[in-house]
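Last lecture ended with a question: if I hand you only a sequence, what can you say about the shape of the protein? Today we answer it with a concrete record. The protein is Titin. Below, first the input exactly as provided, then the predicted structure, then a couple of comments.
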Amino acid sequence: MLKKQTSINVVMRYCYHTKLHSVNYLFVFNFLTTEEADLDLDVPMTTQYVARAGRTVEVFIPLKGRPAPNVTWRRGDRNMASDNRFTINNTERSTTLIIPNVTRDDCGKYYLEIENGVGEPKIITVSLKVQDSPSACQKLIIKNVTRGKLTLSWEAPVIDGGSPVTNYIVEKKASTMKAYQVITAECLNTSYKVSGLEEDIAYFFRVSAENEFGTGDCCETTEPVRATETPGAVKDLVMVDSSKNSVTLQWTKPDHDGGSHITEYIIEKRSQDEVNWTLGATCKRCTCEVAGLRENAMVDFRVFAKNEKGRSDFSQIGPITVMDFIIPPEASLTDYPNGELAVRIGQNIHIELPFKGKPRPAISWMKDNLPLKESEKIRFRTTDNKTSVTVRGAKKEHAGQYTLVLDNRTIKNYFDINVTTLGPPSIPVGPIRFDEIKAQSIIISWDEPKDNGGGEITCYSVEKRETSHANWKLVCSSVVRTTFKIPNLVKGTEYQFRIRAENKYGVSEPLNSSDIIAQHQYKPPGAPGKPVAYNITSDGMTIKWDAPAFDGGSPILGYHVEKKDRNSLLWEKVNSTIISNREYRIISLLEGLEYSFRVYAENNAGLSPVSGQSKHALAISPVDATHITGDSITLCWTRPRSDGGNEIKYYILERREKKSLRWVRVSSKRPITELRHRVTNLTEGNEYEFRVMAENGAGVGPASSTSRLFRCREPTSAPSAPTVIKVSLLLVSTHRGVLFF
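The predicted structure:
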């Protein structure tokens, strides 16, 4: 901190001695007093919060940093500013996160990211512990089912509510009842053996956790269960296939086997025109085909699990129409995200797709919507549920859209894989353009390749050769733009250039230029803009103009200015040396004459056409002195060309000393109403300049041009004799004769 303060003092002293503007003081101060965003540890705070459920939590974090830090609150990957439930209040010195009516779901970590462009961003972790009842238990299952007994097992709650789980409450209800009965409220483990159940009643069970703050949500069984020694019912019974005389069913095994091994599954069937159920089939696996059915019959099916104690309850499905089951032809593209495959040039393209369909579909392949035929380079292979195509030694032309066609005579489906070949870019797009030609250098440009080879263009290489030689020389191998200036050429020598594009997979073929001679090919520039006169005094004017729109291919070296008065036919050059700026002061003008000006530019090729002629401007001082003494100057001026539609009431006169930047209003005992005024209380020997403004009922008008400088001094001698009036004869030659004036 001491070192930074010393730096500030040194820079402030420098600003003072060099008379820098006060804005610079502020800039330097701000620059040297930037501070990295961080916690303000001088202000009491905490990052660990504990709250009872239902309360509102306000997380207050004091901050420091210059400029003021930017603040982002996150929970996980989610920006909390987008959630209307939370309120975030930010100031330059702090941030506050408000969480209303907290629940157990709000406990966990919150992340505050702060940054202000100085140093690295910082992340502050805030922990919130909510004191609440536990969340629901997880994965409640039933096992070890026997006559009148079973065992319940579950996982502890994910959220304990800020206090350890003390016990679990286990409840049951008959499937025909609405109310649950408590079995035990003092279970200490995550399993419980239930006894005393009736065999002919199916039961639901539920478990809830309890801590010091209350009882949590319940976790319930989804299906009722009977406590018998027979198995539970099979689950997830579905039809997987059918034909004109059979139906294939599939299921998953029961949740419990009744304490003994399931010996078989029994499938019964019943047509809609039948009253009784009959045996359809038996099997030992969880899938079975029931054959011998009548075509187009509507049949219900039910499935039992059987062990040594008897049958389970049944699971039923139907009615199912006995007919050929149509499975639309489908292919899985999961191994090809977005249906895309990228292959390096030279490697094999291999596309393998699992498929299904009933009837079994016919398989064919297309590329870019044209049939793809097998050859020495292209091979097909098909199994019961997969088909593939392989293209050996991929080239650029093998990129494109490969399509698998599955056709089962009823439905035809198409599955596309877009293959990209990765390799060097294609040749840059020409022709190579010569944007600037000089004796020692040439600027060339070109366009990007049409094909980037599947990878971003990293750079270009530029080579050159003299047309009288066969060998190429590398100029630069790391050109990142599509334009380049080739230096160190020999004047008058004929060259050829070539460009290659490069990506991470290789280098393209070269693009060659036409032959070009290294020599200047400039043109004179275009005409400059029409000049405009301003800052007009009795003996001078300043003009300014715009640069030519075309520089002729060579930088503008400077400008030339010509003048003429309104009564003259001839233009007279003003400058003796070339003018480097687009602004010039013309002096030694004759007061009372009107002048116009024109400008032309110059480059290495020569002079431009002249600009348009400026408007005529009258060389007259808006404010002039009629009498000067050692401490006063008497001034006069002319009325404004326009009074603004309102009578001019007063004039405001201002003065400024030589080398001063500040204008001072001339004091007067009474308002100035005449076109002259004597300025007093001046310092002898000092030089002053003046300007005047007119005022009417609508306000004060703009200031006049600044007068020339007047020095305060007493007259040193009597005036000289008046000059003799001379009448001169001006002869102007024209193409028809002589004009006399």
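Comments.
1. The mean pLDDT is 87.
2. The longest strand covers residues 412-422.
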